[in-house]
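hey so i finally got around to running the thing on that chain from the lab meeting. sorry it took forever, my laptop kept dying and i had to restart like 3 times. anyway pasting the input first so we r on the same page abt which one it is
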Amino acid sequence: MRIVLNGDSVETADGGTVGELLQQLGISRERVAVELNADIVPKVDYDRRPLSDSDKIEIVHFVGGG
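ok and heres what got predicted. didnt touch it at all, straight out
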């Protein structure tokens, strides 16, 4: 299936979840926020939230600094 990830069209496996996508991308869950079709996905739902064709996903990394 094809999704839009941070503005780019990406091919991914059918039937995956937000958690599986993060794992596939090598992104740690601890310091990110995920928006799926304009809704924030709570971290506890990453493994339960399925992805569908044409979903729009934004992943934002938190960066510390001073």
